[in-house]
């Protein structure tokens, strides 16, 4: 009996150690994975290498989207260029047309990234639109931004994506400028040059919408009587959250490009691409909620789709490898009365403009004019 009792105690002790180690391991992995979702990152990633430059042609190696059809920027540490169509593709390399080198020296050996926003971290001057630098008061401190001029009392507030930059809006500025609509491009909490959130973490729209609300107040204080909110990627999560929280604001329309309407979908896709076990996705989500106080259910705009009344234009690319298009398609299916859906293919995440600028701008102009 004494031997059995000792054996039982040792077995229970061993089992307890194994469970404890397992929980610590899973918890640590969940903490690490949650950080990939909510930790701000502003260090540029240059996955491409320029291997040859010949006249108006550049050859690139690396990356997964260098052969995407359409028009793109190519950005490197001290320069950027505008790239046109693919000329040829071989194993591991792609050769594209160089439309123009905007600044810097495009040469072999340069490390770069394909830039869907076209001009890197530039100002509206890069798109040929006059602008003024502004500061938007907020409880966290002044938010930096810029404002283009216009005669219309309806302003556009541009909200960039996760770890992004207001320059994401530059592609569409000429359309709004031609319509006389001022555009307010904003930085929000945890952006470079902007105040940090109290915990220094991204809240995926759960608190960032407050900064957009401050931008709405700024626009109204400077003469805006109507507002169009325009969001890319995570900005497409922040914009509908703003609309839900400001029911009395004069928001006349939403424009959403590759929007995150349900955070569980891109998180699960990212985990799959990284080879993260499926059960760890739920652990990571749970840790995110514990670390930030946000609720994935509250951030799921499909759950609240019936509550929206604002006319909405949605751009979604079928080859988006970052944010699955399913939620955007479902949002349009649920609310065909207010949603105009524009689907493209080949452009990837926030690449609907790049793959077909003429169509994109035509849809944009028609929607903005209808408001």
Structure explained in plain terms:
With 371 residues, the protein is an alpha/beta fold. It folds into 2 domains: 48-115, Thrombin, subunit H; 124-262 and 300-370, Alpha/Beta hydrolase fold, catalytic domain (Rossmann fold, 3-Layer(aba) Sandwich), CATH 3.40.50.1820. It is built from 10 helices and 14 strands. The strands form 2 sheets. It has an 8-stranded mixed beta sheet with strand order 7-8-10-9-11-12-13-14, sandwiched between helices. The chain has a 6-stranded antiparallel barrel with strand order 1-2-5-4-3-6. Strand 1 (48-54) and strand 2 form a beta hairpin. Helix 5 (264-274) crosses helix 6. The longest helix has 37 residues, at 2-38. It starts with a helix and ends with a helix. The relative contact order is 0.12. The model is unreliable at 6-27 (pLDDT under 50).
Tally of separate domains: 2
- Cα radius of gyration in angstroms: 23 Å
Q: Under the CATH scheme, which class of the largest domain?
A: Alpha Beta
Give the overall shape. Answer: globular
CATH architecture assignment name of the largest domain: 3-Layer(aba) Sandwich
> Strand pairing plus helix content: what structural class?
alpha/beta
Number of strands: 14
CATH-level-4 superfamily name of the largest domain:
Alpha/Beta hydrolase fold, catalytic domain
Helical fraction equals: 25-40%
């Amino acid at each position: 009996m004494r031997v059995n009792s000792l054996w039982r105690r040792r077995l229970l002790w061993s089992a307890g150690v194994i469970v404890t180690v397992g929980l610590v391991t899973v918890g640590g992995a969940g903490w690490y994975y949650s950080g990939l979702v909510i930790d701000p990152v502003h260090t540029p990633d240059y996955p491409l290498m320029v291997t040859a430059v010949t006249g108006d042609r550049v050859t690139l190696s690396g990356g997964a989207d260098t052969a995407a059809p359409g028009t793109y920027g190519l950005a490197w540490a001290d320069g950027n260029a505008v790239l046109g169509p693919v000329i040829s593709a071989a194993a591991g390399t792609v050769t594209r047309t160089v439309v123009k080198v905007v600044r810097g020296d495009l040469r072999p050996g340069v490390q770069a990234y394909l830039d869907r926003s076209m001009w890197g971290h530039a100002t509206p001057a890069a798109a040929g639109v006059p602008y003024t630098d502004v500061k938007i008061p907020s409880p966290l401190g002044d938010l930096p931004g810029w404002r283009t001029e216009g005669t219309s009392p309806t302003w556009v507030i541009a909200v960039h994506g996760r770890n992004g930059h207001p320059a994401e809006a530059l592609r569409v500025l000429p359309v709004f400028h031609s319509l006389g609509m001022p555009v307010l491009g904003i930085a929000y909490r945890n952006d470079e040059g902007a105040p940090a959130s109290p915990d220094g973490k991204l809240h995926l729209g759960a608190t960032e919408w407050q900064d957009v609300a401050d931008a709405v107040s700024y626009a109204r204080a400077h003469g805006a009587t109507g507002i169009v909110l325009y969001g890319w990627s995570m900005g497409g999560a922040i914009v509908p959250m703003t609309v839900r929280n400001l029911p009395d604001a004069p928001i006349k329309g939403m424009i959403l490009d590759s929007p995150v309407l349900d955070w569980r979908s891109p998180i699960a896709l990212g985990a799959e691409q990284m080879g993260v076990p499926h059960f760890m996705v739920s652990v990571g989500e749970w840790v995110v909620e514990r670390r930030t106080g946000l609720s994935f259910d509250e951030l799921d705009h499909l759950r609240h789709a019936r509550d929206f009344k604002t006319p909405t234009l949605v751009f979604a690319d079928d080859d988006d490898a970052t944010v699955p298009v399913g939620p955007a398609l479902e949002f349009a299916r649920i609310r065909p009365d207010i949603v105009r859906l524009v689907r493209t293919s080949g452009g990837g995440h926030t690449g609907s403009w790049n793959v077909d600028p003429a169509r994109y701008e035509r849809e944009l102009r028609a929607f903005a004019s209808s408001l």
